[in-house]
Amino acid sequence: MNCNSKIMVIMGPTASGKSSLALKVAAEFGGEIISADSMQLYRGLDIGTAKPAREERAAVPHHLIDLFDFSIRIDVYTFLKLAEAAIAEIHSRGRLPIIAGGTGMYIRALLYGIDPLPGDPELRARLDRLYDNPEGFEKLKILMRGKDPVDFERWQMHNRKLIRALEVFELTGKSITELQTMNKPQLRYPVIAWNLSWDREVLRRRIEERTIQMLAAGWIDEAAAALKNGILESPTAHQALGYRIIGEYLAGRLSCDAMREQIITATWQLARRQMTWFRHQHPEAMTIAMPADYPALAEKLRKDLE
Question: Where is the domain boundary, 167, 182, 197?
Answer without folding.
Answer: 182
